[in-house]
Sequence to fold (886 residues):
Amino acid sequence: MRIIPRKPLVNNNQASQGTNSIPQDAMPSAIKDQVKVLTPYLEKNEDMVRRDLSIGSSLNITAQAVYLNNVIDNVTFNDHILKPLMHYGSPEGDAKASNLPDLLLTSSLSVGQVKTATTLNETVHYIFDGLIVILVDGYQEALVVDIHGGEFRTVDEPPGERTARGPREGFIENLDINISMIRRRLRDPKLVVRKTTVGRRTRTPVAILYIEDIASPDTVNDLRKRIDAIDTDGVVATGYLEQYLEKSPWSFFPQVWSSERPDRLTTKLLEGRVVVIMHGTPLAFAVPTLALDFFQASEDYYERTIYSSAIRTMRFMAFFLAVSLPSLYIALFAFSPELVPLKLLIPVASARTQVPFPVVIETLIQEFIIQMVIESGLRLPGSIGQTVGVVAGIILGQAAITAKLASPVIIIIIAVTTIATFVIPSSGMLLASRILRLPLLLICAAFGIYGFSLAWLFIVIHLASLEDFGAPFYAPFAPLRWKDFKDSFFRVPLWKMNQRPESYPVQDKQRQGTTNPNAGGES
Amino acid sequence: MSSPHSISSQQLTFILTGAQVGSAMLALPALLCTEAGQHAWMAVLLGALFPLASLFFIERLGRRFPGLNFVQVNQTLLGKIGGAAAVLLFVVYVVFFEMEIISSFGRLVQIFMLPSTPIWATLFLAMACVVYAGSKGGKVVGRINETLFFGILISLFFILIPVYYVNDYTNLLPLGEIDPLELGRAVLVSLYAYAGSEVLLVYYSYVKAPDKVISAGLTATALTVSIYLIVTLACLLVFGPDKVVDTIWPGVTILKVAGLSVIERLEFPFLAIWVGIVLRRGINLPFAAALSLAQLFGNENRHGLAMLGVGIVIYFAALFPQSMMVNFMLVNYGCAAYFVIGILYPLFLLGVAWIRKGVVKNA
Fold:
């Protein structure tokens, strides 16, 4: 991870204060001077709205609301800000009161999030953060109102994480709505939400969520420090943040687990992880992350133990196949055909007799083709993507066999490998399996089964060496944490998971009492 | 903040087991049967006294110097130059010992898996793996040992398959007609199999709970003895002592006796797993040497560089033996070297510590 010393950690009140060149000068009190000092920062932005108004029918105080078009909720603005301000009727004398902005905030504006700004720097940042700033003639303090609105995607089931039995909700691009989805599921007063901003120019709001008496304070502090150390122009998606936080950026493996499902993030919070949600992206992530997390799906916990365990084990096998099957094919048929039972060897060898390429080249060609098919399928719109898949899978495959450019066996090998790849529930690990396949393939081409063993040994050593936020990535397998095996290759019944995982630091290890379902749920 | 090399007592158990069990697992039955015939398994049991003695002496030594690493202990007792010389002697021993281990490994791979690939290429890949693991530090070495230990269990399962099909218990008989001298010679040969336990000299100071070192060491010895006992008994039951003597690696040859319908030749999957088992022995000792070197030069964090240096030297040294006969000759020297470094050396240091009580107190 790259840590560059820079701005101190900001709290909520300071969140909008940046480090750029906008002066920290106090705002002038006359509105024409206020407009004058703001103009250099606002004049080039044609989406900036400046709405002049007069506060109070009898007071007739000149004011100006400044905000960005389509970033605020217009209905709330009209009904709860403009109308009350224009109709503000106060006892005579209040008009000249030194605390008029405070009075307006407390007795006129009927919206939730209000505050004041007194410096030029604050005022400019609040405007560009999407808040409404109301300049009031005769007062240095400007009213600041947060009524974010505009168009957002509706809450929908995330396409990449569908479940048959789980909730159908997924995060959207709005930070506050995403936080509310977690809050609705986790009504614990100990759930802490800390906000900060990342990116000097994008000033993207980021929320750090954790349960105060479960999550390790060291993890929380470490994470906050690292997020605060990010000194960049901008971040536009959680993927940016993840890359800045990862300790081993050159690793094949993703080291931060992310999801679009609030239910999954809620369970992570309950396990003692720290969750990060960023505005503008529907993906949130949780740290510390273990390799095991990438093989767990939310349905594992919604279905019965036997079914979940069987599927979980199958996922691990699928990962092994996704990484190894083409290389094993090479190792066996190019190096050690004597290992293959004769009844299998003969048909495979006879199918290959007319193929002009050696096994290695044949496999590499097919692997390259399937990687292109996957990439094109991912980027193309649904129906076209499916067509490309069919053309590649059936027509191209059949044509290659007929033209004797590939054997049926390699088509089967590549097809099984591809299917196995998409069994992995996490996109990060899925990509890792696609990439890892190539070096394994090459090493097996040179060293056969021996190369295969050593390649996996390299992978295991690498996995064992990854560690972040006090959590060994490869736990509970190395270091061995026997108790955490209850949610690894298999999952024991939920009522048996009395302790939180030991593989990463938590404050409160006890997850639940000793509920025995056979005794009717009594403790 | 904990050291990047700190290990749990559980990891120490697996490190000690991993440092001992390697290619010896495959060759040991033949070496022991040559001396003790059907009583070879007794030599396995009696041979365990060596690692136990080594464990006891090193633990006593470590207990006298809590918090001091291997280099500091040596320099406290033998002086700066004397201590440095002793550490360098240890490093030379490791290089010599590993030369034999890695070289035998290369020969085995060449014979059973890659007959047409040059040995320098197979060894290069293996040593790259060793150096990579060692460069990651003690913590990672501990973790790798934990994971790979289970490979031994799978290997033992493969070895037991032929025993199910072919076995003759009379191969172990008659009992009790052993010449004590022959048994004694066999026990000395078994030193070869138990060499590696001396890594505790270096790892001791990194164990998080030093009070558990003895129990970890005893567990490791019990595991090692069990593994050797199973392999030796399996070979004896299947082949009998006379045929075992005729094979170089009865631990692999035994797998030719039986096959499963889906895996016609068991030795290939066995060797695929065994590669990891042997390389544990290849990782644990060189890492101990590299860490000692880094400590000697005053920068423990440069263990990666030291590991690269040690790895390169071992690689070229392992290319030196031109045949298996040279390897078997080296085994004899290896046994003697283990006796000196694993048993006599800690005993010597204990003696010095006893004589120089004042120095120990100050340390």
Q: What stands out?
A: The first strand of chain A starts at residue 48 and ends at 55. Chain A touches chain B through 32 residues (CB under 8 Å). DSSP finds 15 helices and twelve strands in chain A.
